[in-house]
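1st attempt posting a full record on here, be nice pls
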Amino acid sequence: MCVTGHWLIGYFAHNAGPRTWNVDGAGVQGYNVPLCGLITMGESWHNNHHAFPGSAKLGLYRGQVDADWWILSLLEKMHLVWNIKQPRDLAWRKELSVVAA
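the predicted structure (as tokens):
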């Protein structure tokens, strides 16, 4: 079930859906799959992942449920993990642009 779920979200997240970011020159764009945010622990915010691949936080906007981020934040507060990156911690990529509405 886990492998099938990973494959399934990967399929949908690389074919269609809403997106905020465009990565110029990328072979494939990532798309968000809003209905699967909770059950994929945030992996369905795939457009955000393609925009900020070094970020541990994938649910970047209001309503984007990211349970992985909640767990990592808790572990950080317990001093069990550290140096967790968010988009604000990463260098801006010149190939990244906002998709026109």
